[in-house]
Fold each of these.
Amino acid sequence: MSTVSPARTRLPSGRDTDAAYLAAIGERVREIRARRGMSRRTLAHDSGVSERYLASLESGRGNVSILLLKQIAQAIDVPVEQLTRNGPEASTEVALLMQWLSRLSAPEIRRASDTLHRAFGAGGQQRKRRIALIGLRGAGKTTLGKRLAARRRVPFIELDREIERAAGASLAELFLLYGLPVYRRHERRALEALLLRDEAMVIATGGSIVSEPETFDLLLSTCHVVWLKAKPEEHMARVVAQGDQRPMAGSTEAMEDLKRILAGRELLYRKADAIVDTSGKSIAQSLRLLAQLTAAAGTAETAKRPG
């Protein structure tokens, strides 16, 4: 009498697991690069790593040393991120908090973030005195920011100009000579210096400030933040009309890059207190909506509604 062997469930081999791990790293690098608005060529220049290697990494064909580091981390039972982080080892309390957060869903994490901001952020009235505009270039931060500041009779400040003044160099020179890390340090210092003035103001920030967690957290906790959003096509048209295509420099697929940047940053931009969609609106219409939302900043639910 013949017997039929039960079907075996194929378990993923070590090679399959490693391939998935490398693919995840590549996708993560791609997403973070897009969120920061960097082309692969720019990242290669700033990191000193060849474009060829970056292309290989982003396609899931990373260096074997990454896998060896993963094996070491597994052997000592810690996340691989704990081995690669800069600075001293996190305290036990922070490590436990990070593990707890890692088990939450995306909506739960957003709720936890809002709760922490309410509990430990600056007072509501103090935040309302400072309006900070976030969003990609072409959303209207400078145009609307100047008009809103004039209407509120407060100074209008572009954070990038403050960075240039403190660094004694243009942004282009700063990136070319020192790269993104130095720009980030100047960005943080410039924001801290503005906050020390302890006065009402309207601030136009750089489009990628949301990609630097500590600086963005400082902005959210000390300012009433408004995301000026627009459709990718309008962003591109406005930037081209200004004769400035720096955000897309070196890219042969500018629109696809722009869409990836917006998609990568959308959840971060949505942490703003208010959202003004400038798509298809005149300057006067967008300004009227912006003024209404910032005047009624205390009504959180109303301010959160897209324009």
Amino acid sequence: MPFHNRKTPRAKWYDYTSAGTYFVTICTKDRVHYFGEIIDGEKKLNELGKYATNHRKQIPNHYPFVCMPNYVYGIILIDDHIKNNNTTVGM
């Protein structure tokens, strides 16, 4: 499905291939709570949220990650060693 009216959130002046620390948030379409709910101020993940969280644990621990009911977020660190060795970096 093409994104005809999609605006990029990226800064035009920044080189995103450079080494650095990136905070990444991925939201669900229309912010629907696919991963669980907030009940009495507490996050309650459903099976999909637990699945996403458990599979994230396969990624090295130095990539912090949080699963919320309608989004996931994490921090990705790309250093020159990783960049220069063509290693894929994931959240």
Amino acid sequence: MSAVQAWLAGYITWTLATLLLGTVVIMGYLTFNTLFLIWLERKVSGHIQRRYGPMEVGPHGALQTVADMLKLLGKQLLTPVAVDRFVYVAAPLLIFLPTLCVASLIPVSGAEAFAQMPYGLIVIIALSGFTVIAIFMAGWSSNNKYAVLGGMRSVSQVIAYEIPILLAALSVVMLAGSMNLREIVAAQARGVPYLLVQPVAALLYFIGITAETNRAPFDIPEAESELVGGFHTEYSGMRFALFFFAEYTNMLVLGALGATLFLGGWLGPWLPGPAWLLLKAYALVFVMMWMRWTFPRLRFDQLMTLAWKLLIPVALVNLVVTALLVPRAG
């Protein structure tokens, strides 16, 4: 073997080992995050409704979600006879992979290589919206009218609420003069968090990500009172669990992106940068949970009217006002 071949083999081995290690670390954290958020949501709902929430399995029910995970791992994977088998099996994997990619791209300290990308914000938003295709695939391939309706509703909802999210993020881009996430945080370090400068954009972004992750009061695509379970009605075991793994991971990822855009990202005193970013992200996730157990579910016509007739026009006006004021401030 020549020296070039030996170097190439060593480089490939090192790259694969690094990718494998990174995947294991990220998957380990995301698994813990999902278990923690499910437990936290049960506790939040319990306290809002003056209940205890889970208490029996582990201290304050801390191991309840671990028991649930083991239960799902042991459940049989049932496949209905008349499904489009390839699409049916591919949908849970396809909803999981973009979420994993986005989670690996969120910069937690600004030192990551991806934080240097000039269009990093666009990449993250594009990947986070890709999951809607998998949701539609799951509903369509299930050969179940309730699942199809859930998939169609989810497609309509995500398309509608992606627009105010993008317009809100574009307002931040105008202020920072860059789509680079590090530059956006640096611009807030030189001034104030954009939450104080762009409160309308921050509110629009938060409402949009709540709807994009199918959280109440925007959870009509999987409304159990109307659609049994929505797009995942025909899924069981770990196939079913992958949809909720992606949902809770998406909550954290979009919360971290919101913290980066409006709350200064990893900036903060005393604690290291990653700790500040996670604290801000989990604070936004907590508000999502708070909203779920406070507001009633919207009807689908109300949900679409809110997006197209209120949020999008307000986002456009906010964007125009920002475009008019930024040059004068410069």
Amino acid sequence: MSLKPPVRIGARGSPLSLAQTGLMRDALAAANPDNAFEIVPIVTTGDKIQDRRLQEAGGKGLFTKELDEAMLEGRIDLAVHSMKDLPTQLPTDIVLAGVPAREDPRDALICALEVQSLKDLPDRARIGTASLRRQAQLLSLRPTFQISMLRGNVETRLRKVAEGEVDATLLAYSGLKRLGLQRHVKVLLDPDVSPPAGGQGALAITARRGDDAMAALLTPLEDEATRLEITAERAFLAALDGSCRTPIAALGRWSNGLMSFVGESLTPDGARCWRRTAQEPCGDAAQAALIGERLGRSIQAEAGEQLYKE
């Protein structure tokens, strides 16, 4: 048994966050048997807000602010986040210290109707989502879809579909898998047709800048491919002001020195979509960032202020 103080891992209080953090705690414990690890649940502002979209309340930082504060105050040593919730700009004294291997990044359709694809949904299907990206992609596919705001944890959203409050919703397949709820999936969306949010399926482990001891504990969990993919995606988001106020999708897929990338930005009503794809050599994080930034800036130059119109 370790006599060292346990490493405290901060997590949001949602069931998905606790499940994800539990997976990381177990992986850290297996890789570092001389250390003990404990989870510290912290309720974030984003978890408290259930009646409106995040962009109306302040954006992605609502899911990370309290965890960042706890880390800087020394109440936790690490924090586990869903990568897609992590702002592109982190606080000065916090770094993205660990990027474990990514889970399946695709969106999943949850629906009580018997369908084989999104296109099989009725013209005026009621689809609930709190994601501006998913709203825009759905309306781009079919403007007659009736989109309504749907917040709450994964189980709450599944229940609202089952009870008929909405006909369907879209959720990250990775979260459903981590919760053991993949049986509810009706259709997995083609990521080349409907790319996911940047970072979807990946987890982020943050630590205090300069904390070499924590960095060393995380080394065994680091996954090169995922790090390069999310570096390209986050650079794409940053070039397009990737907050919750702008519908943006991005997916990098890296293998054997080659990065395949698809990214798009849309107007919230889905009427306009600007898309970029690339497949090119990528040997390190600097090259990955350049790919994402270049493609994002290309869309920015073409679309201009149209990207940010409500």
